[in-house]
Every structure is written in structure tokens, then in C-alpha cells.
């Protein structure tokens, strides 16, 4: 897998982001519609894509590989939590803003961007590995993420773990573990609906880009340094250990891509809920998303 092969796959995703940017600037997509699209992605299309991936992976991906992916996902979040605690003070001195940077280190866009990236580079059957990362993400977010911002765990945050993403992930695991073959008509419907996820998610990113101040996104040196550490340095530091565990396998490539995903939306949402200025967070989300068009191919060169 050459740099240019992956680069052009990522470039295709960037063009979809560009389409979202264009239709927003043309007035064909507004905030209300974008919010509705995002809700459909999170509650319907993304979960169905996970199920479609599991259905197409039955008999092709071993249970041991699934377990291994889950263990690596847990390890990834542990590394990112430690990295965020150590490195966030280098990027931000304000106590509240430092929490946002800690969250940005930990909570990557493993679903919204991870699924389109993995499915476009490796194929939809590999999305089932992303499911493992999404399940661990949910667990870590509603424990560590909430506790970091609130200073404590709440019953509400624990109840929130049970959401469409978690349910679809658990169903996907059941399909693979128990070797469940869905009827063809159901598999076709789930697959077609799930395939809506990638273009719609990327159009939503394009909307965010169109609504942002380019100077705030592309004019902050510290955000470029942060992006380098998150998108390249940390994944490459973990590569020797991953290679030792996984050898030269497709799972190694999938995991290193997941390690190099851009900042997700959850730090922004939590910051907004707590009344914290999330200008830098919003800029980091857009910047890392755009930069991963280059950094993901670079990571796969090393793999």
C-alpha cells in the first residue's frame, strides 16, 4: 500500500468535505439541517453501518482478532489519557482550557471520521474493528471524560452509556460471536442505509469548515504542534509495540490509523455544556481533520 494510493483515498474524503463546504456557502445547508443530519448519522446510519460491517464479516474475522482489537483500543485510550495529562500543560496554562486539551488528546473522531477512513482504505468489512474502538470510547468518555470536567462520576453519565452506538456495537459483537447470518434482504437494506454514513458525515464536516474563521483554524502555531503530536508522534511511538503484538497484519494497519484519527466533537460538546471557551477546540477539530488527509498516508508508510 503506497503513500499515493492512500493519499488519493483520503483526497476523495477531502472532496466530500469540500462538497459540504460548497453547499453551505451556497445556502443549501444551514445549521438546522446540519443538526438533523448529524442526529441521523449518530442514531441511525452509523449504527446500521456497524451492523452491516459485522454481517459482512461473519466467518472472515476471528473472535480472537476482535478480542485483540478491543484490548488494543483500551490500551490506546490509556496512552492518550497519560499523554493528555503530561502534555496538555505545554499547550495551555489556563486550568479550564487545559482540561479541554486533555480531552482533545483522548477523544479522537473514531466513528464520524474513523468509519469513512477505514471503509475507504481497507473495505467495509474492517469497520467491525472500529466498533471495538467505539465501544471503549463510550466507556472512557462517560467515566473519565465526565469525571475530568465535573470532578466526579454521576449516575446520569453512566446511564448515557446505553446509546444507539453502544447497542449497535454490542449487536455487532453478537453477530460475529454467534456466527449469525442475516437474511439477504435485511443485510442489503442495512448495508445501503449504512453506506449513507460516510458521505453525510463528511458533508457535516464541510459545514463546520464553512462556518469557521479560517484565521483561527490555520493561524495558531500551537495547534499545528498539537496536531503533529496527536496525529503522528503518539501513533509512531506506539508502532513498535503494536508491531510486536500484532506482527505484520491488516489489524496493525487498522489500529495505527485509529491511533491517528483527528480530534472528535465530544470535547467541544462538554466544553459548551460547562460554559468554557471552545474556540481553540473547534479550530483543532477542523485542522486535525484536514491534516489527517496527509498524516494517515504517512502513518501507513511506516506500517
What are its keywords?
303 residues, mainly alpha, 15 helices, globular
Can you offer a commentary on this structure?
The protein has 15 helices and no strands. Helix 12 (221-246) packs antiparallel against helix 13 (250-259). It is mostly helical. Helix content is 79%, strand content 0%. The longest helix is centred in the first third of the chain and has 29 residues, at 63-91. It is globular, with a radius of gyration of 18 Å.
SSE ordering: HHHHHHHHHHHHHHH
Oligomer: single chain
- Give a quick account of the main beta sheet: strands, pairing sense, barrel closure: none
Termini, distance in Å?
9 Å
Report the portion of residues in β strands.
Answer: under 5%
Number of helices: 15
Which secondary-structure class do the elements indicate? Answer: mainly alpha
Helix content: over 70%
Q: Which shape, going by the Cα principal axes?
A: globular
List the helices and strands and how they pair.
Blueprint: H1 3-25, H2 31-57, H3 63-91, H4 95-106, H5 114-121, H6 127-150, H7 155-159, H8 164-177, H9 184-194, H10 197-210, H11 214-218, H12 221-246, H13 250-259, H14 266-273, H15 279-302
Helix pairs in contact: 1-5, 1-10, 1-15, 2-6, 2-8, 2-9, 2-10, 3-4, 3-6, 3-12, 4-14, 6-8, 6-14, 12-13, 12-15
